Amino acid sequence: MQSVAGQLAPAVQRFVRDSRARLVLLINSSAQVLAQHGFTRSVDVVHMASLGAAIHASSRALAQMLGEPGFQHLHQGGGRGQIFIGAFPTPAEELILIVIFDEDSSIGLVRVLFEAFAREAAALPGWRIARPTQDAASFERDLEAGLDRLFG
Amino acid sequence: MSTLSELLRRVNRVPGVKGSMLVAAEDGLVVEADLMIGVPGPALAALVASLFNRARRSLSGARLGEPTFLQVEAEGGILFAAAPERLGDLLLVVAAEAWVNVGLVRLEAARVVGALP
After folding, report:
1. Which positions 32-51 of B are in contact with A (Cβ < 8 Å)?
2. Are strands B77-82 and B90-96 parallel, antiparallel or unpaired?
3. How are strands ordered across the β-sheet holding B30-35?
4. Of B114, B116, B117, B105, whose CA–CA distance to B11 is shortest?
5. Element (H or E) spanning A95, and its range?
6. Residue B28: its chain A contacts at CB < 8 A?
7. Is the pLDDT of residue A132 over 60?
8. Whole-angstrom distance, CA of residue B42 vs CA of residue B93
9. For chain B, how many helices (H) and strands (E)?
10. HSE on the CB side for A44, CA within 13 Å?
């Protein structure tokens, strides 16, 4: 059976096509990269993944202070470039989709398509054989493998 | 009842109308909605705003000015989006059955928008 990362790629491509997003990054809560679109340098992916996971963790901590389990998504805009960070559950672990978009798209469109993407991604058959990788050793190994897969 | 929800209620009185919404044109987010059960408001809002913004850019490229009305017809129904000046950045979006009297919807929409304070 194809790996989860391989199965996620078509869903990410569809999301990019329909939302007209500029950059898309799919990570887990440990900032491991599962898929990306639009990045040309691995160093940018690593930075964006780390910052995205940190923002998600911070917003979750803020939500917990308010008595909420977490916010569904986070959006920052106002300028030409806007960022959307949305988390969703899968059978193995929680994933985070980071989307950078401009005036070709809109937050409404990204939100609607994110929900469809999350449903599709969570239903992939590959999750039956996947397992969360939270320890430091597997994190390093998976990060390297992920970057090799994405950038060759 | 707010002025905006009263506006939607009046548009919805036209036979064949399944619901109407006020949508932020730039963001594609619903500001106010009065829809029949089963009409997917957020998805409709996002997609219609996206279409409208594309039309805006096409018309601007063709130097035809700003779009004021967009109508999409399909087998299952009709979608309208109007951008009257009095609503600022908001679009009035109407979902209706395919057999709706289009002229009546436009007339009623223009009438209620014109009556806004």
Report:
1. 42-43, 45-47, 49-50
2. antiparallel
3. B30-35, B17-24, B90-96, B77-82, B69-74
4. B105
5. strand A94-101
6. 106-109
7. no
8. 12
9. 3, 5
10. 11
- What are the tokens at A145? 């493998």
Q: Which of A103, A105, A108 sits opposite B29 (nearest CB)?
A: A108
Cβ-contact B93, B20 below 8 angstroms? yes
**Contacting residues for B4 by C-beta, under 8 A, at least 6 apart:** B22, B31, B32
pLDDT tens readout for residues B13-34: 999 999 999 999 989 999 999 9
With a cut of 70, which residues of chain B have pLDDT below it?
A: 1, 117
Binary contact (B49, A106; C-beta < 8 A) = yes
Determine whether the interchain pair A108/B23 forms a contact, defined as Cβ–Cβ distance below 8 Å.
Answer: yes
Q: How many alpha carbons lie under 13 Å from residue B37 in its C-beta half-sphere?
A: 0
Q: Residue A91: CA atoms inside 13 Å, Cβ hemisphere, count?
A: 13
- In chain B, where do the E strands start and end? 17-24, 30-35, 69-74, 77-82, 90-96
- Specify the pTM: 0.80
Query: At how many degrees (to 10) do helices A107-122 and B41-61 cross?
Result: 130
Angle between helices A107-122 and A4-19 (to 10 degrees): 160
Helix runs in chain A, H state only: 4-19, 42-65, 107-122, 136-151
